[in-house]
Write a structure and sequence with these properties.
By secondary structure, this protein is mainly β. It has 2 helices and 9 strands; from the N terminus they run H-E-E-E-E-E-E-E-E-H-E. 9% of the residues lie in helices and 38% in strands. Strands 1, 4, 5, 6 and 9 form a 5-stranded antiparallel β-sheet that branches. The chain is globular, with a radius of gyration of 15 Å.
């Protein structure tokens, strides 16, 4: 779909009803988050959770992404081991500066995933 967020915002996931897909290695898709619920404090941790469907045989993997200041910071790639796999990545520091994640940085960032294999 054109509006990628609308294709993946269901809780719980609707599996094959709406989804984003790519065969392009290193493709990244990120999404804006809702603002931090409290202003003027640091974010203790930011977690990306996503559901991946493997449609091809062989090894596939994806990595969580935290986009800060227009730069994508990918976490550790994780193998997609079954038809549907939940993956996650956690950041406790701003990957651009290694400082705390401020509410301002969090509000200006986006999160997503990267196809790594």
């Amino acid at each position: 779909g054109i509006d990628h967020w609308a294709m993946v915002d269901e809780i719980p996931p609707d599996d094959d009803v709406t989804y984003n897909s790519t065969e392009t290695l290193n493709a990244v898709d990120t999404f804006q988050t809702e603002p931090a619920p409290v202003a003027g404090v640091n974010v203790v941790a930011m977690q990306v959770i996503y559901d991946v469907r493997r449609t091809e045989s062989g090894n596939t993997s994806t990595a969580p992404v935290f986009r800060v200041g227009g730069v994508n910071y990918a976490g550790t790639a994780q193998g997609n081991t079954s038809t549907y796999t939940f993956q996650r990545g956690i950041w406790t520091r701003n990957p651009a500066t290694l400082a705390a994640i401020t509410d301002t940085v969090f509000n200006a960032s986006s999160v997503g995933y990267k196809k790594t294999a």
